[in-house]
Amino acid sequence: MERELRLMKGNEAVAEAAIRAGVDGYFGYPITPQSEILEYLMEANPYERTGMVVLQAESEVAAINMVYGGAGCGKKVMTSSSSPGISLKQEGISYIAGAELPCLIVNVARGGPGLGTIQPAQADYFQSVKGGGHGDYHLIVLAPASVQEMADFVELGFELAFKYRNPALILSDGAIGQMMEKVYLNPQKPRSSESPDWATTGKGSREDRNIITSLDLDPDGQEQFNHKLIEKYAEIEKNEVRYEEFHCDDAEYLLVAYGTSARVCQKSVQIAREHGIKLGLLRPVTLFPFPKKRIAEISSRVKGILSVEMSSGQMVEDVQLAVNGRVPVMHFGRMGGIVTTPDEVVEQVKILFLGGK
Amino acid sequence: MKEATGIKEIIKPENLAYARTEVMLNNTLSYCPGCGHGTTHRILAELIDELGLQSKTIGVSPVGCSVLMYHYLDVDIQQAAHGRAPAVATAIKRLLPDRFVFTYQGDGDLAAIGTSETIHACNRGENILIVFINNGIYGMTGGQMAPTTIPGMKSSTSPQGRDVHSMGNPLKMTDIVATLAGTYYVTRQSVHTPANVRKTKKALRKAIEYQKLNKGTCFVEIVSNCPSGWKMTPVDSNKWMEENMFPYYPLGDLKTPSEQAEK
Description:
The structure holds two protein chains of two kinds.
Chain A: E1 4-9, H1 10-20, E2 25-28, H2 35-43, H3 46-49, E3 53-56, H4 60-72, E4 77-81, H5 83-88, H6 90-98, E5 103-109, H7 125-129, E6 140-142, H8 147-164, E7 167-173, H9 174-178, E8 180-185, E9 211-212, H10 219-239, E10 243-246, E11 253-256, H11 259-274, E12 279-284, E13 286-288, H12 292-299, E14 304-308, H13 315-323, E15 329-332, H14 342-353
Parallel strand pairs in A: 2-3, 2-4, 4-5, 5-7, 6-7, 11-12, 11-14, 14-15
Antiparallel strand pairs in A: 1-8, 6-13, 10-12
Helix pairs in contact in A: 1-2, 1-8, 4-6, 11-14, 12-13
Chain B: H1 2-10, H2 36-50, E1 57-61, E2 76-79, H3 85-95, E3 100-106, H4 107-113, H5 115-124, E4 129-134, E5 137-138, E6 144-145, H6 164-167, H7 173-178, E7 183-190, H8 194-210, E8 217-223, H9 227-230, H10 234-248, E9 252-255, H11 257-262
Parallel strand pairs in B: 1-2, 1-3, 3-4, 4-8, 7-8
Antiparallel strand pairs in B: 5-6, 7-9
Helix pairs in contact in B: 2-8, 3-5, 4-5
């Protein structure tokens, strides 16, 4: 079947894509700039369309624990929020990772810390890729750079989450959530009627009961489980790295940027090349797993790398680890909800690597 | 020798009048001797068995003494974060509406850290059963003051007794949820005597059966003892409970379906 072309906000695209992907349940709580996801779902009557449950929870904390309950039943369930709300969800996310439950979390990020601003930011990188909650765990983190990817990554997120029994996170920001673009939507998929064999659906005719837990009071048992998680994350790093390259082949200088910043940097590359600077862009699509191998390869043939983020410099640490001192790795970013301009980035490349020329 | 053979004759399985319920697993309980958790587990297991619900039951046990409930009951169980069981159960029941879904929560879990989840699940009228064990203390962490610790009651964090002026008053969560439109049946029971065990079993049977009606949340509080946390023998703790807890938390129904029909 053909994909349907629509003009939508990123937030709306997530919501519509969720219904079409056959998601079983969405549990959310209002927060700017992502409330359109819950609003759209309430308006679109997904229960009539597919039987999808949508519930406005009493808090972000309740919402993520509803996701835990639904995911424990083997259902395709998701939640969304923005930075402060995602902080509230971290305990639940840690439990979900510890119980190895698949689910999708969407962060339409805004500036912080604290209540910060409602404008877009990329300051939740550490929280997203380094754990966020307590304990040793990773999320699978997808970074969309367009409304189209907001829609596409709903399906991809669930696919990866179920493949690895691991929570997946879409790390977006207020710009991508709020802006309107054309988006091709997949045809409606039916909700799955099957449950994974580990799910708590009632014992049915099973011999053994199913248990969803992250508790192991035996130190050896807990350590063994930690090793199992490490192996899973290694497998994810082996199979699921996704990135996009833009003029990297002959680049002398490389920009690394994701999401909104990557869109800005694409223009920066064009401007720089008009001025004779051979600039390239690597856009990580997955932030965990991070394209560190590819960045290391490219670093062997460029003179300098600039990590561009709407933050005080978070992803730059992963770029530095990947490059391992081979070439200078610098950071440039605007904060407080200010989106970097393409010219600013080119200017920084000139200042940092070309003696200001 | 003759006598020994006689005993062996008597303890043959067919002579066993009080056998282990099938839904109760053969694992040693982690609960302290004399504590009400074991009795309440047994009642739940008997009812799940008698009502033929073993294949359709999903339980939720959050952090607290009963966090290991999945070691004892042979049904599907989710272990939840502290206080969040009603939210977890909300999603389970909404996504699998024909299953029997219950939470099993202590007072610290339900009435302190999980106050919000408890009140909102009850207020939405989620079709779940909430079993609330109220022993007025944090048992698992070693006897700290709970939201339900009664005035003057000693605990490791109220060693001179709960001073309501500086530590606040005990929270009667069952009375609160009884006022919410979403609850269908709200009752307070105990399991410290055979007569009370029978009453609790009757109450829980009703609560489980009501879930099929989809009329709202059923909420069963069980005022229980905590011999270890209270630092008393089981017998003394039961006496203390009768004399001190019951006047504050009187047993009986707080909301019944017939009352609602009258309204």
